[in-house]
């Protein structure tokens, strides 16, 4: 719990750097909508894949409906309240902090995909942001226009580059659309996730409750920057389940190719 309090205290200290936060916040929002527009356009051009193997279709539809209701009546009100109460400066600082914590997963998976330059850039950013960026609250590299950036890779993408197929579609409770490959990969990545419950100093928490609390805080904070995106998806979808299914697939295909 002391570590959680420390995170919040550092977030408040970070609020002094409002100019950099404002620029980052605008960029993040632009990138979110650009990505959505690209994938949405591709979806409209290619349409649904109605004949594919979907053994969990009944369960997936039910879980999509549950997740949709959970978001509308529980998650969204919490996210909007958080967004109204917490200043963008603090929210972006928290987002930077959690992004910095994700370094081990990105670094390892870039190595496993033989993207050595990307791994090197990840290491540079982690060292810069951890030492000069107040434990990652400030994205020093972006603020100073260094020619390095994060390269988001996970074990699902690594397996895909090794030729492992995605398998059948799975809708996870609360977490949303996934597939057999990525569901397995999620648990593998979690061993390198500092937010996981653990007994060593590598992990932020040694209790399940704290780990869930920190992860939930991360999701709420990150979602506060893009709460309108899901609303747009719901508005555009004639049938939510296949729409989200194809949207998720195209998003993953795009990430794997990058």
From TrEMBL:
For this protein, the record's PANTHER family field holds: INTERMEMBRANE PHOSPHOLIPID TRANSPORT SYSTEM LIPOPROTEIN MLAA (PTHR30035:SF3), LIPOPROTEIN VACJ-RELATED (PTHR30035)
Output the superkingdom of the source species.
Answer: Bacteria
Query: Which stretch is the leader sequence?
Result: 1-20
Record's keyword terms, sorted: Lipoprotein, Signal
Q: Name one Pfam family in it.
A: MlaA
What's the family? Belongs to the MlaA family.
Gene Ontology terms: biological process: intermembrane phospholipid transfer
Q: What is this protein called?
A: Lipid asymmetry ABC transporter MlaABCDEF, lipoprotein MlaA
The protein's organism comes out as: Malaciobacter marinus
Family annotation (InterPro entries): MlaA
Kindly state one GO CC term assigned in the UniProt record. membrane
């Amino acid at each position: 719990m002391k570590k959680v309090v420390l995170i919040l205290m550092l977030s408040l200290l970070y609020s002094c750097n409002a100019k950099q936060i404002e620029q980052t916040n605008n960029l993040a929002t632009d990138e979110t909508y650009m990505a959505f527009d690209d994938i949405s356009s591709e979806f409209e051009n290619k349409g649904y894949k109605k004949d594919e193997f979907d053994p969990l279709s009944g369960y997936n539809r039910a879980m999509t409906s549950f997740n949709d209701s959970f978001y509308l009546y529980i998650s969204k009100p919490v996210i909007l309240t958080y967004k109204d109460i917490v200043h963008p400066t603090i929210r972006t600082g928290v987002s930077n902090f959690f992004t910095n914590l994700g370094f081990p997963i990105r670094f390892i998976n870039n190595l496993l995909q033989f993207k050595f330059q990307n791994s090197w850039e990840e290491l540079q950013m982690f060292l810069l942001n951890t030492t000069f960026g107040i434990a990652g609250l400030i994205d020093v590299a972006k603020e100073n226009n260094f020619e390095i950036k994060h390269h988001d890779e996970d074990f699902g993408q690594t397996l895909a580059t090794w030729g492992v197929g995605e398998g059948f579609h799975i809708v996870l409770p609360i977490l949303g659309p996934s597939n057999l490959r990525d569901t397995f990969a999620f648990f593998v990545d979690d061993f390198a996730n500092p937010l996981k419950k653990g007994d060593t100093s590598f992990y932020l928490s040694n209790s399940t409750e704290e780990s869930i609390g920190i992860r939930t805080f991360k999701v709420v904070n990150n979602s506060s920057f893009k709460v309108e995106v899901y609303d747009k998806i719901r508005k555009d979808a004639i049938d939510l389940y296949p729409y989200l299914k194809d949207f998720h697939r195209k998003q993953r295909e795009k990430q794997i190719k990058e």
